[in-house]
Amino acid sequence: MLEVKQVSKLYENSRGVHNIDFSMQRGEIVGFLGPNGAGKTTTMRMITGYLNPTHGQIWVDGHSMADNPKKARRKIGYLPETPPLYPEMTVQSYLRFIANLRDVPAREQKLAVAEAISKLGLQGREKQIIRSLSKGYKQRVGLAQAILHKPDLLVLDEPTSGLDPKQIIEIRQLIHELGENHTVLLSTHILPEINAICNRVLIINQGRVVLDERPEHLGRTMGETFEVSLEVKGPRERILTELRSLSSVGEVKEVDAPAAGIATLDAPALQAASELNSADEAAEIPAVAPVDAPIESVKLLVTSADRAEDIREALFFHLANAKLPILEMKRESLSLEDIFLKLTTDEPADTSSTSQEEVDTDA
């Protein structure tokens, strides 16, 4: 659906983007991430034809943005970070205006506008002046203009920026529904949106793509060690012994160690406590727990001996055979936030110049 081949946008005395290379298949929802000034908006503007690349080629459904820009743009619906709205127009008149700009045939415009209004939940607001709408509904109108001509590719730049939590959930659900019939490239700074909506992640840093992977494979791409958090019921020392006897287990760490001085009292301490009780029967001294009192449950972090090996099945059967019930088992993995910071925090501060992306404002 979309091919971006070795695309660069170079500016004098500013960063630009360098050799961006990726493609998108029909039906994908791709999250496009990066710190401020990394080149996200510049890349999206080149994809939508608002900027011409210095080098490289962009194809949309087989149409070159350089050779056939009009045909390529017809395949794209674009929502900039600031929706391109006319505040003095009503919702309906604005969408009809956009339908004319998008060359929607006159006989189809009424139906196209009605479908966009219905899909974006704008019923009852058709005659309302756009200026009077809340920001959430303005975003809906912005999405409506992007899908009005039934594009194959939707390019959405920060579609939930500045919205309250309820509006974010609503817009996120709308994007998810739009993804059923459209290919979507979504730029956002809200990382949980990527996990909730997207089936692929692109991270850009300093004008270059530094990660292109599906969310479920991010840990493997980053060379992550396979770790499992466990809660096991039974005596602490026996649990530790059983786990460490497994050849597939590399390291076992206690998450919540037992409180000191209670169940771990040695024999001399117990003898002293007994003599003290005998010497003064009136003294209210609490009974001391026996040395071998079982712990209700133990929480542990278990690491695989082979960094990538899934050890959950081996842990389950081994502890079940030892009659040590597993109360909870969960794989621990790097979060998207951790990966994003790891890939982008090495960016040097650039105070000598401002990138074109930061200077331009969406129109």
From TrEMBL:
Keyword vocabulary terms for this entry: ATP-binding, Nucleotide-binding, Transport
Gene3D superfamilies: P-loop containing nucleotide triphosphate hydrolases (3.40.50.300)
A GO MF label: ATP hydrolysis activity
Keyword Nucleotide-binding: yes
Signal peptide: none
TM segment ranges: none
Recorded superkingdom: Bacteria
Protein name: Multidrug ABC transporter ATP-binding protein
Naturally occurring in which organism (per UniProt): Paenibacillus pectinilyticus
